[in-house]
Amino acid sequence: MISSATLTLSNIPHAPSPTTVSALSEPKSTPSSPAVSEPSSPTEPQPRRLKSSPQLNRWSRARAIRSGRKLGRPVQRPADEMSFSNSSLGVIIDNNNSDGSEVQTPSPRGDDGECVTDVTTAGGKSIYMVSDGTGWTAEHSVNAALGQFEHCLVDRACAVNTHLFSGIDDVDRLMEIIGQAAKEGAMVVYTLADPSIAETARQACELWGVTSLDVLGPITESIASHLGVSPSGLPRWAPGRKVSLGEDYFRRIEAIEFTIKQDDGALPQNLHNADIVLAGVSRTGKTPLSIYLAQKGYKVANVPIVMNIELPKSLFEVDPEKVFALTINPIVLQTIRRARAKSLGFSDDIRSNYCEMDHVKLELEFAGKIFQQNPIWPVIEVTGKAIEETAAIVLRLYHDRKNRCSMPRISRRY
């Protein structure tokens, strides 16, 4: 026999009682005649089934992430497992007849009528990040937590696939995603400002047995209790919420424009207008670090240090407390330069001067002598550090100096 339950918004009460939840969780069995498989007519269109492949899997995932709607990606499950089906949500799950024969259900179709291909997800557990805004908070929270499992993720012993669904501000799309999470056995992490939608997500996840986490709700409730003020419950970009493009926004735009113009030693006469000046040899991450800091509103200039090329005089004329030196392990630098030279198609002569270990060491020693001549410049070791880690060190030192905070326990090399 085939049993199914359909989840709609009316089926999810705002304050479910234990009896209500149990009634929803256990569908009633009604007498019915045995299911008889009727042969389909020759003219009836059959759902297209595509052969799964790694390329198709990647394509399907990318397509689902972009649209946030076409989510037909079943996973392999035991043959005797019973599941719920919800045609209104586009979550169709095959069930088994009482005689053990499988009931084939057509694949859901997208809004444009195109068949959404059933693709088996290969390897790894999934984490769905759902947000009514950009998803920045959910994404960074998940990434920060995953950093505690590097020992497991590096050797792929516990592979994880993350999927971000941003701009989810209506219940139908939310239910579709949670239904797919239940189908795939995924975890749902959500940041939903509207308390009613967040509660709906919580109840749906509880009903379907989906592991879930509300990132935004607890901290919002704590701040509301601390301030004694109720939150608005509106997403940041909701139509009813007035969000003005204030001074902070235009300051970030100005900082990004300045940083792009000052990249790679351009316009050295403007170094005195920079908030932060980065100096280091080629491939120490000056440009990505500059852009990252610029997005936070800091005007950043970076100056490359190249052997036998004189540095701009303005580098030594600006306030030395806003200059930060970057250095790196020579072996790591050689590896990075080799990859860069290969991607740019450098000739053998240029590659030997740029990538050979002797040249790399000489260039680092040349930069080290310049750093020693300017003892106020802090030297930051970027080997093995992410851009965010290096930026955190730079900003900590920048604000410590700006506020005249002394931290003698920290050495000069970072």
UniProtKB/TrEMBL annotation:
Region (Disordered): 1-114
Biased composition (Low complexity): 29-43
Record bears the keyword Transferase: yes
Lineage: superkingdom: Eukaryota
Keywords attached to this entry: Kinase, Nucleotide-binding, Serine/threonine-protein kinase, Transferase
Keyword Kinase: yes
Protein name: Pyruvate, phosphate dikinase regulatory protein
Compositionally biased residues, Basic residues: 60-72
Pfam families the record matches: Kinase-PPPase (PF03618)
Bias-annotated ranges (Polar residues): 1-23, 83-107
Record-linked InterPro entries: Kinase-pyrophosphorylase, PPDK_reg
The organism's taxonomic lineage, starting at the top: Eukaryota, Viridiplantae, Streptophyta, Embryophyta, Tracheophyta
MF terms (GO), sorted A to Z: ATP binding; protein serine/threonine kinase activity
Signal peptide: none
